[in-house]
Amino acid sequence: MPQQPLAQVPVDATWEWQEHGACREADTALFFHPQNERGLSRIRRDRAAKSVCARCEVRLECADYAIRAREPYGVWGGLTEEERERIYVKAALTTYGREKGAGLRAAVDLL
Ligand code: SF4
């Protein structure tokens, strides 16, 4: 069985915001894709989750946590895991500069 990546919870993480999440009233299955889900069904489920996040009063706190924790799965703060990955790559590119190979080094370091 492949090793599952784990979130890297920031040492200064707080959790009170979760008490106010709009997803507390929603089906959690909306936010986490089932194994092998892809295509139109994945797009539709992600959009449904994002519509819940769009009216959530703690969206920024949620997104900040998920990005800093490198949450590997699910829609958090209105961002899918693929969207968060792009943020990590962008952040790494900034840190690593723009010279040839910088993108690859950033991607390798993020994997
Ligand atoms: S932003 Fe979305 S995932 Fe985060 S607490 Fe709000 S509804 Fe839940």
Automatic annotation (TrEMBL):
Protein residues bound to [4Fe-4S] cluster: C23, C53, C56, C62
Ranges for domain 4Fe-4S Wbl-type: 22-86
Names of required cofactors: [4Fe-4S] cluster
Key words of the record: 4Fe-4S, Cytoplasm, Disulfide bond, DNA-binding, Iron, Iron-sulfur, Metal-binding, Transcription, Transcription regulation
Pfam family, one: Whib
Signal peptide: none
Compartment(s) where it occurs, according to its Swiss-Prot or TrEMBL record: Cytoplasm
Cofactor note: Binds 1 [4Fe-4S] cluster per subunit. Following nitrosylation of the [4Fe-4S] cluster binds 1 [4Fe-8(NO)] cluster per subunit.
Post-translational modification: Upon Fe-S cluster removal intramolecular disulfide bonds are formed.
Function: Acts as a transcriptional regulator. Probably redox-responsive. The apo- but not holo-form probably binds DNA.
Similarity comment text for this entry: Belongs to the WhiB family.
Name the UniProt record assigns to this protein: Transcriptional regulator WhiB
Gene: whiB
